[in-house]
Design a protein that fits this description.
Blueprint: H1 14-29, H2 38-71
Helix pairs in contact: 1-2
């Protein structure tokens, strides 16, 4: 997994982001983790986490809005 191969986060689905986070985690936990790539993996994981958190928050707000209209 190289930084050059990373798809822009804005173009990824939530499921793709989670899958890539899982791959990064497995890579970082493996005995073969390249210490020179650790910062790249950490930076990418942080970017993916921010994106996922943002999407979850937006979805929660949308669902709350939809449910509020049902209560009226």
């Amino acid at each position: 997994m190289s930084a050059e191969a990373f798809k822009p986060v804005e173009e990824m689905t939530y499921n793709e982001s989670v899958a890539q986070l899982e791959t990064i985690l497995r890579t970082m936990q493996s005995d073969n983790c390249d210490i020179d790539r650790l910062a790249v993996y950490t930076r990418r994981a942080a970017e993916l986490l921010r994106s996922c958190r943002s999407r979850l928050t937006a979805t929660e707000e949308e669902l709350n809005s939809i449910l509020a209209t049902l209560e009226q």
